[in-house]
Amino acid sequence: MQSIDKNSMYADSQREKNLRGSLRSEVERKINKDDIVILDSMNYIKGYRYELFCLIKHVQTPHCLVYCLTSAALSAEWNKEREANYQYSQEIMDALILRFEAPDSRNRWDSPLFTVQKEDKLPFEAISDAILKRKVPPPNQSTQSQPLSSVNFLYELDRVTQDVLMAVFDLQKTSIPGDVIAIPGTTEKIKVTRSFNLAELRKLRRQFISYTKMHPAENIGQIANMFVQYLNKSVH
């Protein structure tokens, strides 16, 4: 892929979404049972990793995930050592760190998981075994009959609720109790009764996602409005 301006890309949710879509399409085009495909990307959204996993299941090929674990401070140091044109701004780095959803080996789409830190050597043999010797994930009805429809819903559910959450979190900083704030990307508003910290909002988001997975919306475009409505009911 051609070089991109990372700062402008990750500052624009639509451009970032388009980039992920391009990467996914490239993986889908190249993946098969005979070749090894390496996607070297941040992949910091668990819903997106799940989407890639469903592609893998559809093709019936093994996979693994290599997680390069570093501290925020070390990442900042490495970023400063890059050429100026390739550096992330501090604002974008902070936003990416805040939005990062670490992989969890208990999730089938994050497993097998190899976590590697700065001083570690790559476990080449274990990675090779995971790709070449492990059984392929069994197909299921969703991956056989509609490999991406349900995945798209999960992806949008994850992305949209995260965008709404961050909008609420940011907008309340300049609001006072009693204010009614409009949430970008929705037709809904939230009445500010008090300030909510990020942990509280994330808990409500997890609850909404769990419920919505069991009761999928027929119209994906309504997810943002539904989430704001849920927040209004929960916080009041």
Polypeptide structure, described:
With 236 residues, this protein is mainly α. The chain folds into 2 domains: 6-143, P-loop containing nucleotide triphosphate hydrolases (Rossmann fold, 3-Layer(aba) Sandwich), CATH 3.40.50; 149-235, no CATH class. Helix content is 53%, strand content 6%. The chain has helices at residues 6-10, 13-30, 46-59, 72-81, 90-99, 124-132, 141-145, 149-171, 198-214, 223-235; strands at residues 65-68, 113-116, 180-182, 189-191. The strands form 2 sheets. It has a two-stranded parallel ribbon. A hairpin with a 6-residue loop joins strand 3 and strand 4 (189-191). Helix 3 (46-59) packs antiparallel against helix 8 and helix 8 packs antiparallel against helix 9 (198-214).
